[in-house]
Specification:
16% strand; three-stranded parallel sheet; alpha/beta
Length: 340
């Protein structure tokens, strides 16, 4: 695999036991990939975040489980909150299995809320599998006036927001509940955001809890940050007292809206392919992905990175996407108004 520098987040993550079931569809080993290159399009920059890091981790191993053992390269395509990469994968990439992607986990929200720049239908994509879910946390520097999320109703919290998912979520929460969030979107990635927090340029940042607790363990130990909120529907076992996004709802309608914005955490860091692939190619990619997550070399790399694996196969990912489009039109309309 051809690689580029992956930055500090390459040592970002914690390993647990993994059970991955291969898809039931039989895979035909016809050497389709012999002499070819498998490209993985990533919606973020080189070394910017876990999207890039995890794409490269899979890329180092998945070629061994594809017929013909192709070369695997990662192509970074940041821009427009992940829309640039999604449009490329959906409209331009060949539909033969030689190009797949790791898109922003909130790309389905971009479609659901009809942002005009997106020219893709995520329900028609062929989801390959998830590496990790993403229970992100919002955390604030210890000098910030906001020590717990309730304080944000009375005190301004300046949040560094570097991705589509966080921008949508915090804009929505500000309008729905009246929290005093001020979003700063000029930083290129999480690494820059962490430095900005140390320099006092911003108060807060959000990122996967499994990443934060590893790369900034000393901040937690020394109480330099306060964890305010977790965004997943499933609470992290080691954050029993930190409220979830849905816990902030004051009524059933608000809870549905907050649940809708939490669905992206289930998508997490997942691989997908364009629509229109032959069924046998989809089956082969899913089988190769499942085999990769059980590969001793992959697991050794994951352990070095302290990565918590929470795999999910493509058919189940598809069901999550479809559920996100199944909310009532009234709830979707209200959610859409909150991010405008």
């Amino acid at each position: 695999m051809q690689v580029r520098p992956i930055g500090n987040l390459s040592a970002a993550f914690a390993v647990i036991g993994v059970t991955v079931l291969a898809p039931s569809v039989p895979v035909v080993a016809e050497d389709f990939y012999r002499g070819k290159t498998l490209e993985i399009i990533v919606s973020s920059g080189v070394g910017a975040d876990s999207y890039d890091t995890l794409s490269r981790l899979v890329g180092r191993h998945i070629g061994h489980y594809l017929s013909g053992n192709p070369t695997v390269v990662v192509l970074n395509m940041p821009g427009a909150g992940g829309i640039l990469a999604a449009n490329e994968l959906y409209n331009i990439a060949p539909r033969d299995g030689t190009v797949i992607g790791m898109l922003d986990q909130s790309i389905y929200e971009t479609q659901l809320f009809k942002l005009s720049e997106l020219k893709a239908d995520v329900t028609k994509m062929n989801w390959i599998g998830r590496i990790i879910s993403n229970n992100a946390v919002l955390f604030a520097w210890h000098t910030a006036a906001v020590k717990k999320i309730e304080d944000a109703y009375a005190n301004e919290l300046i949040i560094c927001s570097t991705g589509s998912s966080s921008q949508l979520r915090w804009t929505m929460l500000k309008k729905l509940l009246g929290v005093k969030f001020k979003l700063i979107t000029g930083y290129k990635g999480t690494g820059d955001g962490l430095l900005a927090m140390e320099r006092g340029e911003v108060d807060a940042l959000s990122m996967p809890w499994t990443v934060l607790r590893v790369i900034r363990a000393e901040w937690l130990r020394d109480k330099k940050i306060n964890v305010l909120l977790q965004t997943g529907l499933d609470k992290a076992p080691d954050l029993p007292d930190v409220p979830r996004l849905v816990d902030l709802a004051h009524n059933g309608e608000q809870r549905q809206i907050l649940e809708l914005f939490s669905q992206a955490e289930k998508v997490g860091r997942s691989l997908t392919a364009p629509p229109g692939l032959p069924p046998e190619r989809i089956a082969e990619l899913r089988s190769a992905f499942a085999a990769t997550l059980k590969d001793p070399g992959f697991l050794a790399d994951a352990e070095k990175m302290q990565l918590s694996l929470t795999p999910l196969m493509g058919d189940k990912l598809q069901a999550i996407i479809e559920k996100s489009f199944a909310y009532s039109p009234a709830i979707i309309e209200q959610a859409q108004a909150l991010i405008r």
